[in-house]
């Protein structure tokens, strides 16, 4: 690899000190990239370069030639605003592209030209690290605290995978997880929730390195944040080490070795740094506030490092060579040994080896759907949360890498796995399949993302109203295209007496607004089966189930259309019996579909030709071709009624500007379910009246 400078400038470093040369190369690359982009944070990369260098060069078990090797150590940059730290190390260590979906395998994941185009359109070096876009990026980070939560999921995954797949003489999984976080991460609640859970689980394979630089965007952190973080983490049950100066690599090595030798708890290494190290005039202003230093300050910083002031994007050849002799050689040796081990493992345990490989490809095991139930027609029916619990366990019996839990609500969300050997995931039982997240919805979401990043098929569950506590990780699961499973129950005002604080009104439309998230609100037990069939076959995106607490009828599928239509997002459930074209279309989701059916039967008795469309998923319906969509919702039938116990925002997309929308226009109320349904218009009478009105208006429009 060649260097990046354009002149004949000479370095003033002691050639016998390659560590300092590598550290200052990380710093100067970061400064140059931020300065050229006129955007970004140079301070943290400058201050923490010695830390990242030491972790990667001395400790990380990572092969740059194969950045998705399953047993690699993970390095998560939770402080994603310091992205140039990661891009610089990925470039200097020679990380190769390893994601065939988005990159050309074998090429450099981050070239010097990519760094020159930091934060530019189409660059492999965007403002914050993005999973899938750049090999070596283990998680999309930037929203502070999320990477911390992801790392807890990764550490849980490493222990779970070891318990599930390791056998005597075959330590297939034994990796560690390192996370670089900052003051902002420590202030965010999600990191605190995740740290508490990690301490409870005694995740000894997890190390957070906390850059305590005492600066935030508004100024010194002591204007808002003066707690004793070390004492807090000790209270969580973590081992805590201190490094008083980020430049003291010997002290950092000692702290990391202590992490490696601590067998019973996670580790926090509290590192004091001086943000913008080497930029003496602006170290407490621009560098801390996400602004470039300016050309003059960059030159001063380079002078302090003994770096050619006129050089830009300079990488001496010896830096590449030094990383090749360190992390690259160690990682290659480690990976080659693992591959040889895995071949012996395959010979001794072929079924387990096949399961590992399927998991890495995100493929469900063959026969996962063997025991899927079929529910008989029942006018009383059952809650979709109950049918979902039955289906979930039928799948779990044949899908051993499906794990998950709830934010202290598994008895209500019906998400406890009861199949033989499922067990609870606890400190002494890392292989349990039932996770107890506690009342920590936000951390649950971030941890489930970390499990999915580790290729485990994971789910998290709560009440739909509490999806509000999980919006950042829900959004990131879609951004990262992770096949996370989000199970939300108590999906409407149908939960009754708990009142408007617990009755979700705007949550469905909010979730539908997240690009790439499939929202499924099944109408009955058999639609639940089909919803799970869709979910398990997803590989590149998350899905959200919205389920009822109250019982809903199980529809007679000999009378109405098959629930298999769910896979297309919306389908014709009922049509006029005499083959007439419909005069009006009733569109429902979830528990309101049976309400549409009741109205349909009454209209049919009156001689009105109605159609009922079950629309469990807007997203899946929009993926269908125009011919199918128009077959379900013929444009010429303008008399339409939508029925859903949620905000009506967005329903004009399907009923048109003149259609009727029976839904929630405000918050709910505390009362028995029957009273609420009458109060807010979710009755057969109301649907029939709306249908008649729509037919009358459509008739007038045709005259």
Helices, strands, pairings?
Blueprint: H1 18-37, H2 43-59, E1 74-77, H3 83-92, H4 112-116, H5 146-165, E2 177-182, H6 183-187, H7 189-201, E3 206-212, E4 215-216, E5 219-220, H8 229-236, E6 239-243, H9 249-260, E7 267-272, H10 295-305, H11 317-348, H12 350-360, E8 378-383, H13 384-396, E9 402-406, H14 410-413, E10 434-436, H15 441-453, E11 457-463, H16 471-479, E12 485-489, H17 507-512, E13 518-520, H18 525-536, E14 543-546, E15 551-554, E16 571-574, E17 584-588, H19 592-605, E18 610-614, H20 618-622, H21 626-632, E19 640-647, H22 652-655, E20 660-664, H23 673-679, H24 684-702
Please explain how this structure is put together.
- By secondary structure, the chain is of the alpha/beta class.
- It folds into three domains: 318 residues, Thiamin diphosphate (ThDP)-binding fold, Pyr/PP domains (Rossmann fold); 175 residues, Thiamin diphosphate (ThDP)-binding fold, Pyr/PP domains (Rossmann fold, 3-Layer(aba) Sandwich), CATH 3.40.50.970; 139 residues, Rossmann fold (3-Layer(aba) Sandwich).
- It contains 24 helices and 20 strands.
- Strands 10-9-11-12-14-13 form a six-stranded parallel sheet, with helices on both faces.
- A hairpin with a 2-residue loop joins strand 4 and strand 5.
- Helix 1 runs antiparallel to helix 10 and helix 2 packs across helix 3.
- It starts with 17 loop residues before the first helix and ends with a helix.
- The N terminus is likely disordered.
């Amino acid at each position: 690899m060649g260097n990046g400078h354009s002149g004949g400038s000479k370095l003033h470093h002691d050639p016998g000190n390659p560590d300092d040369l590598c550290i200052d190369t990380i710093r100067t690359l970061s400064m140059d990239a931020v300065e050229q982009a006129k955007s970004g944070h140079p301070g943290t990369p400058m201050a923490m370069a010695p830390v990242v260098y030491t972790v990667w060069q001395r400790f990380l078990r990572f092969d740059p030639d194969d950045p998705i090797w399953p047993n690699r150590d993970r390095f998560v940059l939770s402080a994603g605003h310091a992205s140039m730290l990661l891009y610089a190390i990925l470039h200097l260590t020679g990380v190769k592209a390893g994601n065939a979906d988005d990159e050309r395998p074998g090429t450099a994941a981050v070239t010097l030209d990519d760094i020159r185009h930091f934060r530019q359109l189409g660059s492999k070096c965007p403002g914050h690290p993005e999973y899938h876009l750049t090999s070596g990026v283990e998680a999309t980070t930037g929203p502070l605290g999320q990477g911390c939560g992801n790392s807890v999921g990764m550490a849980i995954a490493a222990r779970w995978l070891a318990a599930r797949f390791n056998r005597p003489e075959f330590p297939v999984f034994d990796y560690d997880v390192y996370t670089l976080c900052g003051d902002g991460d420590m202030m965010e609640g999600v990191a605190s929730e995740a740290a508490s859970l990690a301490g409870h689980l005694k995740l000894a394979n997890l190390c957070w390195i906390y850059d305590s630089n005492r600066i935030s965007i508004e100024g010194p952190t002591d204007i808002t944040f003066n707690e004793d973080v070390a004492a807090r983490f000790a209270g969580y049950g973590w081992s805590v080490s201190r490094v008083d100066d980020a430049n003291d690599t010997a002290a950092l090595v000692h702290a990391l070795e202590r992490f490696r030798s601590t067998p019973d708890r996670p580790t926090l290494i509290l590192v004091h740094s001086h943000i913008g190290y080497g930029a003496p005039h602006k170290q407490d202003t621009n560098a801390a506030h996400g602004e470039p230093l300016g050309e003059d300050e960059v030159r001063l910083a380079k002078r302090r490092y003994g770096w050619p002031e006129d050089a830009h994007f300079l990488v001496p050849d010896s830096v590449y060579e030094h990383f090749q002799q360190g992390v690259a050689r160690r990682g290659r040796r480690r990976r080659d040994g693992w591959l040889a081990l895995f071949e012996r493992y395959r010979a001794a345990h072929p079924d387990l080896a096949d399961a590992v490989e399927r998991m890495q490809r995100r493929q469900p095991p063959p026969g996962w759907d063997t025991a899927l139930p079929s529910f008989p027609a029942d006018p009383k029916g059952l809650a979709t949360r109950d049918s979902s619990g039955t289906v979930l366990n039928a799948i779990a019996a044949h899908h051993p890498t499906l794990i998950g839990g709830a934010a202290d609500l598994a008895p209500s969300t019906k998400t406890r796995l009861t199949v033989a050997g499922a067990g609870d995931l606890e400190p002494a039982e890392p292989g349990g399949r039932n996770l107890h997240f506690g009342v920590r919805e936000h951390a649950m979401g971030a941890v489930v993302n970390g499990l999915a990043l580790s290729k485990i098929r994971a789910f998290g569950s709560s009440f739909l109203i509490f999806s509000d506590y999980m919006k950042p990780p829900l959004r990131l699961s879609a951004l990262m295209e992770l096949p996370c499973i989000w199970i939300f129950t108590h999906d409407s005002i149908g939960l009754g007496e708990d009142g408007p604080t617990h009755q979700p009104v705007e949550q469905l439309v909010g979730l539908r607004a997240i690009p790439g998230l499939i929202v499924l609100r099944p109408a009955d037990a058999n639609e639940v089966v089909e919803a799970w069939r869709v979910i398990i076959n997803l590989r590149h995106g998350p899905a959200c189930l919205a389920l009822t607490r109250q019982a809903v009828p199980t529809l007679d599928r000999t009378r109405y259309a098959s629930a298999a239509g769910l896979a297309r997002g919306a389908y014709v459930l009922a049509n006029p019996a005499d083959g007439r074209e419909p005069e009006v279309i009733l569109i429902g989701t979830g528990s309101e579909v049976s309400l549409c059916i009741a109205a349909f039967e009454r209209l049919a008795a009156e001689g009105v030709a109605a159609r009922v469309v079950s629309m469990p998923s807007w997203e899946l319906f929009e993926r269908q071709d125009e011919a199918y969509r128009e077959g379900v919702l013929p444009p010429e039938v303008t008399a339409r009624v939508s029925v859903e116990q949620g905000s009506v925002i967005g329903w004009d997309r399907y009923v048109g500007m003149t259609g009727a929308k029976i839904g929630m226009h405000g918050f709910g109320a505390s009362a028995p379910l029957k009273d609420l349904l009458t109060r807010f218009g979710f009755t057969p009478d109301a649907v029939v009246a709306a249908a008649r009105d729509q037919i009358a208006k459509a008739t007038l429009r045709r005259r």
